[in-house]
Amino acid sequence: MFLLHEYDIFWTFLIIASLIPILVFWISGLLAPINEGPEKLSSYESGIEPMGGAWLQFRIRYYMFALVFVVFDVETVFLYPWAMSFDVLGVSVFIEAFIFVLILVVGLVYAWRKGALEWS
């Protein structure tokens, strides 16, 4: 039988965790000074007046390079716990991790052939 009172602590934590950010933003909105002027509305680049327009187009290659970096950076987060408990987990987990790395290698080869790793 499903008993709702077993989850009282969970619901209490969820409500409190939801209310704290809402209250913080509400209180900061009340206490923050509202001083809009030309200084506040201008772009800020290390204290130097900005040169040129703000709408510059960047090549997609930079975003692709960053995305490939993030994918392989997250890979290490998934593989680290597996590597630390390798002797306990057994062969089936080794095969699963091998398939995971194989999929990532296929993705790396695909990104490499598409030119996503070329910086220039």
Automatic annotation (TrEMBL):
<comment type="subunit">
    <text>NDH is composed of at least 16 different subunits, 5 of which are encoded in the nucleus.</text>
</comment>
<keyword id="KW-0150">Chloroplast</keyword>
<keyword id="KW-0521">NADP</keyword>
<dbReference type="GO" id="GO:0031966">
    <property type="term" value="C:mitochondrial membrane"/>
</dbReference>
<comment type="similarity">
    <text>Belongs to the complex I subunit 3 family.</text>
</comment>
<keyword id="KW-0520">NAD</keyword>
<keyword id="KW-0472">Membrane</keyword>
<keyword id="KW-1278">Translocase</keyword>
<dbReference type="GO" id="GO:0016655">
    <property type="term" value="F:oxidoreductase activity, acting on NAD(P)H, quinone or similar compound as acceptor"/>
</dbReference>
<keyword id="KW-1133">Transmembrane helix</keyword>
<dbReference type="GO" id="GO:0008137">
    <property type="term" value="F:NADH dehydrogenase (ubiquinone) activity"/>
</dbReference>
<dbReference type="InterPro" id="IPR038430">
    <property type="entry name" value="NDAH_ubi_oxred_su3_sf"/>
</dbReference>
<keyword id="KW-0793">Thylakoid</keyword>
<feature type="transmembrane region" description="Helical">
    <location>
        <begin position="62"/>
        <end position="83"/>
    </location>
</feature>
<comment type="function">
    <text>NDH shuttles electrons from NAD(P)H:plastoquinone, via FMN and iron-sulfur (Fe-S) centers, to quinones in the photosynthetic chain and possibly in a chloroplast respiratory chain. The immediate electron acceptor for the enzyme in this species is believed to be plastoquinone. Couples the redox reaction to proton translocation, and thus conserves the redox energy in a proton gradient.</text>
</comment>
<keyword id="KW-0618">Plastoquinone</keyword>
<keyword id="KW-0813">Transport</keyword>
<dbReference type="GO" id="GO:0009535">
    <property type="term" value="C:chloroplast thylakoid membrane"/>
</dbReference>
<dbReference type="GO" id="GO:0030964">
    <property type="term" value="C:NADH dehydrogenase complex"/>
</dbReference>
<feature type="transmembrane region" description="Helical">
    <location>
        <begin position="12"/>
        <end position="34"/>
    </location>
</feature>
<comment type="function">
    <text>Core subunit of the mitochondrial membrane respiratory chain NADH dehydrogenase (Complex I) that is believed to belong to the minimal assembly required for catalysis. Complex I functions in the transfer of electrons from NADH to the respiratory chain. The immediate electron acceptor for the enzyme is believed to be ubiquinone.</text>
</comment>
<feature type="transmembrane region" description="Helical">
    <location>
        <begin position="89"/>
        <end position="112"/>
    </location>
</feature>
<dbReference type="GO" id="GO:0019684">
    <property type="term" value="P:photosynthesis, light reaction"/>
</dbReference>
<dbReference type="GO" id="GO:0048038">
    <property type="term" value="F:quinone binding"/>
</dbReference>
<dbReference type="InterPro" id="IPR023043">
    <property type="entry name" value="NAD(P)H_OxRDtase_bac/plastid"/>
</dbReference>
<keyword id="KW-0874">Quinone</keyword>
<protein>
    <recommendedName>
        <fullName>NAD(P)H-quinone oxidoreductase subunit 3, chloroplastic</fullName>
        <ecNumber>7.1.1.-</ecNumber>
    </recommendedName>
</protein>
<keyword id="KW-0812">Transmembrane</keyword>
<keyword id="KW-0934">Plastid</keyword>
<dbReference type="InterPro" id="IPR000440">
    <property type="entry name" value="NADH_UbQ/plastoQ_OxRdtase_su3"/>
</dbReference>
<dbReference type="Pfam" id="PF00507">
    <property type="entry name" value="Oxidored_q4"/>
</dbReference>
